[in-house]
Amino acid sequence: MENILNGFTIALQPINLFYCFIGCLAGTLVGVLPGIGPTGAVALLLPATYRFNPISALIMMCGIAYGAAYGGSTTSILVNVPGEASSVVTCLDGYQMAKKGRAGPALGISALGSFIAGTVGVIGLMFLAPTLSRAALAFDSPDYFALMMMSLMFVTYLVRGSMIKALIMVGLGLVLGMVGMDALSGRERFTYGAVTLRDGIGIIPVVVGLFGVNEVLETLSSQVKTDILKIKIKGYLPTLQDWKDSGRPIVRGTFLGFIMGIFPGISPMIPTFLDYGIEKRLSKHPEKFGTGVIEAVAGPESCNNAAAVGSFVPLLSLGIPSNAFNAVLLGALMIYGLQPGPLLIKNHPDLFWGVVASMYIGNAMLVVFNLPMIPLWVKVLQIPANLLAILILIFCFLGSYSINNSIFDAVITFVFGVFGFVLKRYRFETPPLVLALVLGPLIEVAFRQTMIVSGGSFLVFIQRPICAFLMVVSLGIVITAFVKKRRFTESIGREE
Amino acid sequence: MRTQGHIVGRKKVLRWVVWAIGLVLVIGPASLQAQQGFPSKPVQIIVPYGPGGSIDVATRIFAEPLSRELKVPVVIDNKTGGTGLIGASAFLNTNPDGYTLLAVAGSTMVSAVQLSKSPAFDPRKDFLPVGYIADSPCAVSVAKNAPFKTIEEFLKYARSNPGKLRGGVSSLGGESHITFELFRKEGKFETKMVPYTATGGLVTAIMGGHLDWMCLMFPATMPYHRSGDVKIVLLTRRSAELPGVPSGPDVGMPGVSINQWTALLALPKTPKPVYDRLVAAVAATAKDPEVAKKLASAGFTLDYKPPHEVSKLINDQWDIYGQVIKEANIKTE
């Protein structure tokens, strides 16, 4: 308790409040812009922070991380371009809500859900960080493999149409995930000698193409040019009914996101996909998912914020970065002369508690300056369709180029934009492809590590309790999905 | 001789220019300015790895005092990808005016080129070393609950239980992987090798008891040694921080002596006066005790070496890596 109070004394110092504000603001900005993520932003800002006190610097950088998790949903909802990888799922129903004139409530529930998730996450970080991070160490490669397989099974809940077509997309996603230098043997696969392909195909360029560019092509090819102008805006804030629908999804999203965020190497994108699947599974009207239901926005958006906070657990308590952004923070700590690792909290309590306390404050700040922005954002939808299309295209290409300053990434975005357009024509759905692309490399590495240790025996998968449990759950998902799928397809049929 | 005021005035102008660095570097009429007195605009260092990695950290620590020495801002540009090859290739296409330098993890660069099917350059010929900044050793460490606590116990156990131990490395082709291969060869024992894709996964695995031992860079291992989660039993070079831990050559393994080093490189066509100025600036910066302290707290040892020694090192390591990669049967086809 004393520690927490001490943390707040540090975080509430005017200078730290200022840096917290700057961080949140910058984070929201990079979150809103597709492509440019918190990692790039922090790397750019790093030299400017050398003269700061390390606590202030870290407060600012953390602000960028959770600020970006807030901002990422904005473009997903408004124009179907995910601002961050973790906001891909938000596109599915968020954009449909915007098309129905409910962009305001969608943005509102994202901001408020994020606030709740962020705050709960920070409480978890504060009280459970060391315990939880040690508990997560029990996971070995077979368990990761099972966890990833289970996540992949949720693909059955991501599609509305044909399951066969969804599985084709999964296959394609897995193949695309294999492009590049194999991390475990050094062999190049599907690179055709191109150096740019050695790192594989980036997720952001693909996603921006499949969603953003594809949407623009769709708009331009459709006959109704004034489509967007016709949208009547119905309210800026979530209604009471919206809250009733979103309450439980926010709670579930928060817990799922926080727990999965703790595991190193799991991108915050994966829990959002899982959460969408879980919400659809539990929903009384799963056939409406994908047409703009608010719980499908509230859950994943809470989830990605909780995951952003959850990833600080291994970083601050063990010195283990669970994503690229945290790796930069780790580097920053080293440049400041602090030694990140299991002893960080003990040796630098001011840093840990100060930063954690600033996260409470930062989350509150984000809500305060995000809610008044909503009417402004919604106005974006009133920009003439053709002009908006051009703007979206510019942002898409600029965004994917800016990740690595690579023209190749912009080309990927273009190719996948056109490809996505073709897929849509033939009623293939793209979310399974994205999920498989993210999970494929993780599944493969975990599987091969398992095989190296076990000497080729598959028994490990049922000998380890955690692993066996997850395997049973995956099997359960597949079986119940096929049973439910029939009824589900029927109800979609009825609706149409 | 310029007056002090003249330089200060210029500095002020340049401070504005920093904000438009990208633009300046593209359209700056470099050749003219180079003759007027180097440097007259910001110097850029390409780091061909992601921000936050060890080479990035070391270069950033070094860049700050270097900018004071050169009296212009020194900017870091992370050009990530292709295990360092993309940044290095981009560097080869820049103007040889000394305004763009490359920071490399020497040996990673060597192995990345050797692992490449059609290498775009030869690190022995295509670069002009400016100076060697710092290095850090590789560490062989064992899990907390392992039945061995010293290198002798480790080797005894490993030799009497061939193929049973689970050893981990963080990235293929890097210093720690090469050390892993040399260690098991010169230590004459058999072990499983579990490769990980990032340091985080490797450290998590050994802390969770899923590995018996690992090879990882010293700065990355040290926090877990201090907290008692792992125990360092062997280093590729002795460290003042761990006086009791032997180095590879100490225990009869001369090959287990590869350190991860960071050097700055220029292009061979750089004008002589500019190059000399850069070499002198790097040498002078390396004498700053503050730099040594900062690098040490991040796990690096400041160890300046002049250009010709860097060239020799690249040549030597080219041969060692080539042999290890061939023997370990790492292929890219």
Per-chain topology:
The complex is a heterodimer of chains A (496) and B (333).
Chain A: H1 2-11, H2 14-32, H3 38-45, H4 54-79, H5 88-99, H6 103-136, H7 141-153, H8 163-178, E1 180-181, E2 188-189, H9 203-221, H10 240-262, H11 269-282, H12 295-310, H13 312-318, H14 324-335, H15 344-347, H16 349-370, H17 374-379, H18 385-404, H19 407-425, H20 431-454, H21 460-463, H22 465-495
Antiparallel strand pairs in A: 1-2
Helix pairs in contact in A: 1-16, 2-4, 2-16, 3-4, 3-14, 4-5, 4-6, 4-12, 4-14, 4-16, 5-6, 5-12, 6-10, 6-12, 6-13, 6-16, 7-20, 7-22, 8-20, 9-18, 9-19, 10-11, 10-12, 11-12, 18-19
Chain B: H1 4-18, H2 21-27, H3 30-36, E1 43-47, H4 54-70, E2 74-78, H5 85-92, E3 100-105, H6 106-114, E4 128-136, E5 138-143, H7 151-160, E6 166-169, H8 175-186, E7 192-195, H9 199-207, E8 213-217, H10 218-226, E9 230-235, E10 260-266, H11 272-285, H12 289-297, E11 301-305, H13 307-327
Parallel strand pairs in B: 1-2, 1-3, 6-7, 6-8
Antiparallel strand pairs in B: 3-10, 4-10, 4-11, 5-8, 5-9
Helix pairs in contact in B: 4-11, 6-13
Quaternary state of this entry equals heterodimer
**Helix and strand succession of chain B?**
HHHEHEHEHEEHEHEHEHEEHHEH
Number of strands of chain A: 2
Order of helices and strands of chain A: HHHHHHHHEEHHHHHHHHHHHHHH
Radius of gyration of chain B: 21 Å
Average predicted confidence as pLDDT of chain A: 87
The coarse overall form of chain B would be globular
| Broad structural category of chain A | mainly alpha
> How many strands in all of chain B?
11
Instruction: Report the radius of gyration of chain A as a whole number of Å.
Output: 22 Å
The number of helical elements of chain A comes to: 22
The termini of chain A sit apart by 57 Å
Low-confidence stretches of chain B: 1-5, 21-35
The biggest chain-chain interface is:
A-B, 55 and 62 residues
Strand residue percentage of chain A:
under 5%
Helical percent range of chain A? over 70%
* Average of the residue pLDDT scores of chain B: 85
Could you say which overall geometry of chain A the principal axes of the C-alpha atoms support?
A: globular
